[in-house]
Structures are given as C-alpha cells and as structure tokens.
Amino acid sequence: MTAAVERGAAPPVPGIPPARPTVPRSAAGEGRRPVWQRVLFVAALVGAAVIFMLPFVWLVSASLRPREYVFAPGFLPVPFAPENYAEAWSAVPLLTWFGNSVVVGVAAAAAVTLSSAWVAFGFAYFRFPGRSLLFGLVLATMMLPFAVTMIPTYLIWSDLGLTDTQVPLWAGNLFGSAFYIFLLRQFLLSLPREYFEAARVDGASYPQLFWKMAFPLIRPALLVAFVFEFKASWTDLLKPLIYLRNEQLYTLPRGLKVVLDRFGYGGEQQWEIVLAGSVLATVPMIILFFLAQRHFVEGIATTGRKG
Questions:
Q1: Residue 32 covered by a domain
Q2: 181 in helix, strand or coil?
Q3: pTM listed for this prediction
Q4: Is the preceding peptide bond at 17 cis, omega within 30 degrees of 0?
Q5: Is the pLDDT reported for residue 15 higher than 60?
Q6: Per residue in 217-234, pLDDT tens?
Q7: How distant, in Å, are the alpha carbons of 140, 152, 182, 288 from that of 285?
Q8: What whole-number distance in Å separates Cα of residue 218 and Cα of residue 199?
Q9: Cα–chain-centroid distance for residue 42?
C-alpha cells in the first residue's frame, strides 16, 4: 500500500492528529469579537469626543449671544448675535495680531524642524565614541524648566538689542529642541542604513545624504514636528509677555490678554468680545489639524519603529 504525500509537506505521524492551519491572531480575534463589544467601544469613543468638544461648543455658542445672555444656561446661541465678531474685529487689531502669529509660528516651526532634523541625522547615522552619552545629555536638557533659563535668555537678547522685537520668539529654535531631536532620530533609525551606505559609495556627501535621501523619507515626522511647534508658538503667551511692548507686534495670545484686560476682568465686562476673539484664535489650529491629519497620524504611528 502506498500513500501519496504532498510535495514539501511532512508525512503524517501515527497517533498524532494533523496540525490545523494557523490563522493570524488579529484576524481571528476580530472575527470572534462580539457585536456588543464593538458597539460599546464606538459608543465610548463618541462619548469621549462629545465630552472633549463641549467646552468649545459652549465657547462658540456663548460668543454668538448678546452680552446679557452670554452666561445663560444651554448650548444654543439664543438670542443670536453674530455681530459680536464684527465688534471684536473692530475693537482691537486682530488682523495684525493674526499676521504676527502666522509669521512667528512659521519661523519658529521651520527653524526648530530643520535644526532638529540635522542634529537627529547626526545622532542616527554617525558612529562615534560617546554618542550615547552626548545624546543622553541632549535629552537631559528637557528636565530644565523654562523658568531656570528665562532670565539668562532675556539678558542675552537684551544685550543684543533685540527686546521689543519678534526675533526672541523664534530665533532660539535655530539651536534645535531635545524633544524633536529625539522624535526625528527615532524615525531616522527606522530607515535602512544600506541606502545611505550605497549613496556614500556612489560619492554622495553628507549634506546630500541628508537633503536628497533622509529629508524626503522623514517628511511625515518633519510635519509632526512642524505642527507641534507651530501649535506651541501659536498658543505661547509667556514669551510675548516678556519681550513685546509694542501693540503692533503682539501675537494673538498676547493680544487676547489685552482683550481680556480691556473687556473682561476689570474692564467693561463685554465678555462676548472676549469669547469671539478666543474663537477666532482657536479656529486656525482646528483647520491646520484637519488639513495635516493624514500625515500627522502617519508620522506619529511610524515614529519610534526601528528597523
């Protein structure tokens, strides 16, 4: 008696049942997950999203009410007063502050992204004695609070004659950031080193390795760093409070402080103008996130995965 054995498969052993085909754990788990668990998961996500959105929904609603109804209960703008935004726009130079915030935010984000990427490339590509120690020292700078370096930094900019200018708001980013250096280095470590070694054999210089190979490949991580820093600059109040005196140089957070002092506490109690200005300062960040959402999520998901 002869038995046909499939080519490449081991013959069956008497007394031992044949092995069952393996199914990927993710596919098997997804198939066995009950419907009620998926419904509960989606409901939890929707509930969390609603909770996080409630403050902004109230802010928009209150900014569209007349002064005497600003703090009325409910989330509907009743009575409806869209003229609050026109009053806020005419009461203070919001357009000037908006432009200043865009200029400072783009300069700060571009400076820290490029400088941090260059340093991260050095830590990821080059092998030299003490590299790990030096990288640890760079990360240790994140433990220093801003209050420790605030006064020495101000004295430096004051000696340079750059106080009451927008330069101190972004020029410090030309020296990189430990957080972004770490983030971009982890992304660079996920790239195959053979690509760069082959380019070196073909005669590429180190700047060419960075600009023509590494820079295009780490674009999602660069976008993450850019968005993070742009958001940080857009919402920063402390630096403009320290360095700016001329109202025409104010950024939006510094301008909103003026609006709050003039129309809020100790002022005319025109809270509808304060809330309208807050909405106008928040909407650009929401638009930016939605425009960069796909690349943003991609950069977060792939950063830290070392190949």
A1: no
A2: helix
A3: 0.80
A4: no
A5: no
A6: 888 889 889 999 999 999
A7: 30, 31, 24, 5
A8: 17
A9: 25
Residue 10 covered by a domain: no
For residue range 94-120, list pLDDT tens digits in order. 999 999 999 999 999 999 999 999 999
> By the 8 A CB rule, do 233 and 240 touch?
no
Task: Over range 262-284, report the average pLDDT.
Answer: 84
Give me the amino acid identity at 225: A
Domains: count for the chain: 1
Q: For residue 94, which of 221, 205, 252, 237 has the smallest C-alpha distance?
A: 252
Give the residue from 131, 138, 113 showing the smallest Cα distance to 218: 113
- The verdict on residue 271 lying in a domain is yes
Q: Could you tell me if residue 31 is inside a domain?
A: no
What is the rounded CA–CA span in Å between residue 224 and residue 183?
A: 9
- Judged against a pLDDT cut of 60, whether residue 22 lies above it is answered with no
CATH code of the domain covering residue 151: 1.10.3720.10
**Widest Cα–Cα separation across the chain:** 103
154 lies in which domain range?
84-306
